[in-house]
């Protein structure tokens, strides 16, 4: 659902996307090698002010970075501002790449919590899905998913969305995902590609992802950027994450609620069955799969570098630093549109209902 974090981006599992996990009391501190506790960032501004030099790797245990699109996203769109609260600032209205600040995080939270203008399309077993469509362009949609997570602490879910190695285990929609470089102690840029329901073409994104612990709650969000070394590929459709992310809210020592919000331009005219399937089947299934992954995460993490959590301990990050000036805003109108409006659902999709979600088999999570 949603790439990386994120356009970790529901429709493909990710994602973000998604995109949507479970984790138990894995030690918060880096333990052993890195002798400091998790770095607490009081605000996005404070994180942006932190110099990357103070977070150089101190250990040799790094391998890949951490990019978690959250649930992989299908077609979705930029959220129109609610009449009650201001929506996220129009990222694509910016002419230069910027790391989100406190106002961006707060407006994202407000949009996640807003109710006006959303149409409920699914509500069952603690999972709810809402959609919005922009009248001037019905191919663009935004989707919001919310799930109650029992027996899963907020910090575990936060770890699951960040842990790129674990994502490769539970996100069956991911084709390829990796972190490219870090921008600040709480922002990086990375790549995510995901499978779409057959016979649609698969998508990919390059996104700037930022994260911020807010008391007992957490936010991870991203938007699309252009990186000179990662241009659009011929075998994939380059989608655009206008604003995608997760709000994780603690409801107790071992419970939380996660809200996934995605505004993605899939760069193409999509058939109605894709939009309906995404909101009524794929998104709920992806959220449930995330929950199962969360439940199994503590046991898995104990066997796989249990103290390696660069999203909590930036000094562990093996990523090279990158200047914001190396990136540019990815404008949707600069990419090719693919007309898939007449594509019919494949028999495999109708019978299996997988929609790129893959098997529910949990054996890969051990």
What does this structure look like?
The chain is of the alpha+beta class and 366 residues long. Strands 2, 3, 4, 5, 6, 7, 8, 9, 10, 11 and 13 form an eleven-stranded mixed sheet that branches. A two-stranded parallel sheet has the order 12-14. Strand 3 and strand 4 form a beta hairpin. The chain contains six helices and 14 strands. The radius of gyration is 18 Å and the shape is globular. 20% of the residues lie in helices and 28% in strands. The protein has helices at 44-49, 102-113, 154-162, 164-170, 272-303, 347-352, and strands at 17-18, 119-124, 127-134, 137-150, 174-184, 187-194, 203-214, 217-226, 237-238, 240-252, 255-265, 268-269, 328-329, 338-339.
The count of helical stretches stands at 6
Helix content: 10-25%
Mean pLDDT, as a whole number? Answer: 73
Choose one word for the global shape: globular
Total strands: the figure is 14
What are the defining features of this structure?
single chain, 366 residues, alpha+beta, two-stranded parallel sheet, globular
Summarize the structure.
This protein has 366 residues and is α+β, with helices and mostly antiparallel strands. It is built from six helices and 14 strands. The strands form two sheets. Strands 2, 3, 4, 5, 6, 7, 8, 9, 10, 11 and 13 form an eleven-stranded mixed beta sheet that branches. The chain has a two-stranded parallel sheet with strand order 12-14.
Secondary-structure map:
Blueprint: E1 17-18, H1 44-49, H2 102-113, E2 119-124, E3 127-134, E4 137-150, H3 154-162, H4 164-170, E5 174-184, E6 187-194, E7 203-214, E8 217-226, E9 237-238, E10 240-252, E11 255-265, E12 268-269, H5 272-303, E13 328-329, E14 338-339, H6 347-352
Parallel strand pairs: 7-9, 12-14
Antiparallel strand pairs: 2-3, 3-4, 4-11, 5-6, 6-7, 7-8, 8-10, 8-13, 10-11
């Amino acid at each position: 659902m949603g790439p990386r974090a994120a356009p970790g981006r529901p429709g493909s599992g990710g994602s973000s996307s998604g995109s949507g996990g479970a984790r138990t009391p894995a030690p918060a501190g880096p333990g052993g090698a890195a002798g400091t506790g998790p770095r607490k960032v009081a605000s996005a501004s404070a994180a942006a002010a932190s110099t990357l030099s103070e977070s150089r790797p101190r250990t040799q245990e790094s391998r890949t970075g951490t990019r978690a699109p959250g649930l992989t996203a299908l077609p979705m769109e930029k959220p129109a501002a609610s009449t009650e609260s201001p929506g996220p600032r129009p990222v694509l209205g910016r002419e230069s790449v910027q790391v989100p600040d406190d106002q961006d995080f707060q407006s994202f939270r407000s949009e996640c919590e807003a109710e006006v203008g959303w149409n409920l399309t699914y509500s069952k077993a603690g999972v709810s899905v809402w959609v919005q469509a922009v009248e001037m362009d019905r191919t663009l949609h935004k989707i919001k998913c919310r799930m109650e997570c029992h027996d899963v602490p907020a910090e575990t879910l936060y770890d699951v969305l960040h842990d790129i190695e674990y994502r490769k285990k539970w996100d069956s929609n991911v084709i390829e995902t990796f972190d490219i470089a870090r921008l600040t102690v709480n922002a990086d840029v990375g790549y995510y590609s995901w499978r779409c329901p057959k016979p649609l073409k698969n998508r990919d994104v390059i996104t700037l992802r930022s994260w911020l612990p807010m008391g007992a709650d957490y936010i991870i969000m991203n938007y699309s950027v252009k990186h000179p070394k990662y241009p659009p590929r011929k075998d994939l459709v380059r989608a655009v994450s206008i604003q995608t992310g997760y709000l994780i809210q603690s409801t107790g020592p071992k419970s939380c609620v996660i809200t996934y919000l995605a505004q993605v331009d899939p760069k193409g005219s999509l058939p109605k069955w894709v939009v309906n399937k995404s909101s009524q089947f794929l998104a709920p299934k992806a959220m449930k799969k995330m929950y199962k992954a969360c439940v199994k995460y503590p046991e898995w993490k104990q066997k796989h570098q249990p103290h390696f959590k660069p999203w909590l301990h930036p000094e562990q990050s093996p990523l090279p630093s990158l200047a914001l000036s190396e990136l540019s805003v990815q404008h949707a109108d600069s990419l090719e549109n693919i007309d898939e409006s007449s594509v019919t659902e494949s028999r495999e999709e109708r019978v299996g209902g997988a929609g790129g979600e893959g098997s529910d088999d949990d054996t890969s999570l051990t």
